[in-house]
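Complex record, two chains
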Amino acid sequence: MLNEKLLKLRNEMNQKGIDAYIIPSSDAHQSEYVAEYFKGRRWISNFTGSAGIAVITSDSAGLWTDGRYFIQAEKELEGSGFDLFKMAKEGVPTYSEWLKSVVKKDGIIGFDGKVISVSAYDELKKGFNDDNFKIQYDLLESVWDGRPNFPKEDIFIHDLCYAGKSVIEKVDIIRELYHSHGADSYILSSLDDIAWTFNLRGSDVLNNTTFYAYALIEDNKTTLFTDQNKLNEEVKLYLKENKIVLKPYDKVADTLSNLEDKNIYLSPDRTSIYIQSLLKNNKVIHNKEITTHLKAVKNEIEIQNSRECYLNDSIALLKGFKNIEENFKKTTITELDVEDIIKNERSKIDGFKGISFDTIAGHKDHAALMHFKANEKNTYTLDTCGFLLVDSGGQYLNGTTDITRTFSLGEITPEQKKDFTLVLKSVITLSRAKFLKGTTGYKLDMLARYPLWLEGIDYKCGTGHGVGFFLNIHEGPQGFSVKKTHDLPLEIGMNLTIEPGVYKEGRHGIRTENTVIVKKAFTNENGTFYEFETISFFPIDINSIDPSLLNTDELKWINSYHTATFNKLSPHLNADEINWLKEKTKQI
Amino acid sequence: MLNEKLLKLRNEMNQKGIDAYIIPSSDAHQSEYVAEYFKGRRWISNFTGSAGIAVITSDSAGLWTDGRYFIQAEKELEGSGFDLFKMAKEGVPTYSEWLKSVVKKDGIIGFDGKVISVSAYDELKKGFNDDNFKIQYDLLESVWDGRPNFPKEDIFIHDLCYAGKSVIEKVDIIRELYHSHGADSYILSSLDDIAWTFNLRGSDVLNNTTFYAYALIEDNKTTLFTDQNKLNEEVKLYLKENKIVLKPYDKVADTLSNLEDKNIYLSPDRTSIYIQSLLKNNKVIHNKEITTHLKAVKNEIEIQNSRECYLNDSIALLKGFKNIEENFKKTTITELDVEDIIKNERSKIDGFKGISFDTIAGHKDHAALMHFKANEKNTYTLDTCGFLLVDSGGQYLNGTTDITRTFSLGEITPEQKKDFTLVLKSVITLSRAKFLKGTTGYKLDMLARYPLWLEGIDYKCGTGHGVGFFLNIHEGPQGFSVKKTHDLPLEIGMNLTIEPGVYKEGRHGIRTENTVIVKKAFTNENGTFYEFETISFFPIDINSIDPSLLNTDELKWINSYHTATFNKLSPHLNADEINWLKEKTKQI
């Protein structure tokens, strides 16, 4: 079968003298979620998964993706002209190994240098010469008919009463930190870091509050590169008042090419090889994104806002859940309806700006898929058998929420009850922890797995992640990671989700997720100890708990958690809702 | 004040044109414990601690040691002519930084290249040139009057019924592994690795079963370099039968200098720079010691022997403890006496070859010092107030033991009882763990700290270490380390101690230590899970436990542990001892 798109691309490759062309999944800022404009890999291969790399030569085409997507990719790639390469499977070459085997010694490998990071390029380059690469061609520009427009949504100011720290304060700290690394300027490409630094938000990417931009921070000057049409007069005035120079998005190339004799700090993981290639007359200093770490440590005003935000979010969630529970036996409610009902309640909250990620509403075996997304074809109608798992969140001016609850809709099996209780034990064990300053999330992850591992159960992901503040749903460097990715310990003010689960394919899925903030517990002769403050208050289904599996400390925790939940939420509810909540937060 | 030894050394340095001379604490094999012959640093500085580095120039002398020894070193260095440098303290230079500041650009730094590892030399060399170093001079040889003799204790065969694997089998695997790294020969310097490989034992170092030797394993030849006088005819015949070439210890230099065109595998952490400097005409491949990892995974015969060994050891310990408990009120028993009583009981066991480390017998506040060693001056006489902590072990043909118990001798405070119970909770939490294949000891360490950290208590060391098999008391790479030192997961057959503690300076110290072996629990859809088999069976003081602090699982664990202890030990005891044990293993 013939893939017209491939034909056109090969034609372009031929004209430009390119032997192999790479199309990854990322955007020009190495974002986790990208605008439609950047979904070229999906366009050319038909593969819709979030992670994958396409590589095309004159006579072959390959798509590399990971274990999550093997089945889906096989189906979607049918007739596309692409061969599937299963990443990390024994005997399957990586795309760079494959390139080495199919590209001649003096062959030319091309790609759009904006969508490949410095780190990825360094990895790819091993075994090749610089001469093997042409990194300036975005061939999709000429071959992709109907390519979506580059996003140009409005940018707005994130008020100081939410953000807590002004752009001037933030830039001052950034300068201090890049100086400490011997730099005198700093290029920022990562979108949430830019949004955080400038206290600006946008909506260029679905469910995110970021906008496409670059920033250059020098000792005496701060420049923001973004589409001028996105800014109204208020924002322009704000930038002026804060002495921020505004330049068009595309002018970043001019500006960077003309920099000279600078020591420029940048993160190779978050900056494209294209951007770095512009800095010919400068010394480049590679290190972690400075702002990512600063942003991860929430300030007091962000924390206070988050507490309120999570409370409001829980009230909306409560109204949604109550509605579902009271009506699903009388009328038809599907998983898709659950998404709508909850989104509708959230949208009534002051400061609501959209949901923070695609809602996961999974009934029965659907919940066993960690990232289930219901659609018109597959959606279940709720019935009284088994669980309903809802993982959802909102974007609000005063924070970003992420919460999962799993409720029994009627009958559950003893196995399901046991699994639910084990997940609860897991949440409690980690939530109660006190830990010495200097402890990593990687080490603490062990505590959440302990009760599940005792029963031979594991979830194949980390226990939790950092959450943005009116920003991305996933944020680093903090996290309860299952594998060690870095040495950075948890710090006071970092927030994290705690979200262990049980996933039994074809049967059921259970996840309970709260968000916590690291705070100081006490200092004594052994050192300074930290602990977690839980800021999610929402009932955990007591009907699904087997109290005989909980020890005294765990029973005490769940009961006092429910008391606090009742006390915090009830002042904002009507009598009917209070009764509902009272029942849900009964002591066990 | 004048240090004659320093004067003599400086004289020698002057004659040899050396500007600075380094004397570390290690021996020629980077051993943890070293023979008296190698204790030159102690001799010249008077500092008796186990870790420290002396550096001498024409007009100054410095001694570097770590936090454990600051107070002791200050006292001992008085009048020695040495200045104390407190390692890891802010503002204190490392010895290599200090050398950089005092040695001229073309100055000469000398040391005995045998006692500095390749890794340590690489670290030291930074900021210097190779020309700055003279690594062949052991100046102590001429200045140290009355230097102890190089040890020459007998070497004997560790029978296959204990070792489980023959030297031929072991060398075959070693060859396979160095081949997989592109090597065709392997130099072994680490003494316990050599003893393990050849199934030979000695007693050159106090409490250890090693002997001074090098080994060279080539594809068609295995050479052992050691003092011929140490071997009787039986051992010589054994070597011959196993096709092992025997050469004198000192001939290692000749042999290695004459090797050519080899790809030689060696561990830079365990091999001296002197040895490496001999390999001029060869390619050297650096990596972890192959044998250390092989040795860490005990084979079935070693495991079965260890079980028996720990049982016999517990019986001796029981007789000792019973004697102490029944007599300390009637007669004077000091901490030193406790050491003797227990050693005496152990020595009656078949196959006993000595204790495996200096016994720690600490009463009251003495036990708060993690590595307390009683002497004639400081020893306490036992009374009915507080705890007695005994950490001890034996070297037997069928294993090496390491066990700690803390017993109340009469009255303990509620705080002491709580602390004792917390330590027990810590032991139980980790001992009960099930964990996915691939999990590191570093991650599991968290489980032991959890119950203590909840109460703001920490112990400033790892939770446990590997134990040799009729070999060194400390063995790697396995361990429940507090800091991450490597990525190696625990494997089936590895043994480890679990030994959390509470140490309150000037008040009390509590430690409970068992040894466990990693074994497979089960495989299911989530992967393969491992668990621990405890092989130490000895009562844990029930009078010091507050059962109200234990949850159901913990109560179940301690009661079933005591049932097993009674069942395993009682068949080997007389009626009187059985009664004593019954009382000690009562259900709570």
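Note: The longest strand of chain B covers residues 514-524.
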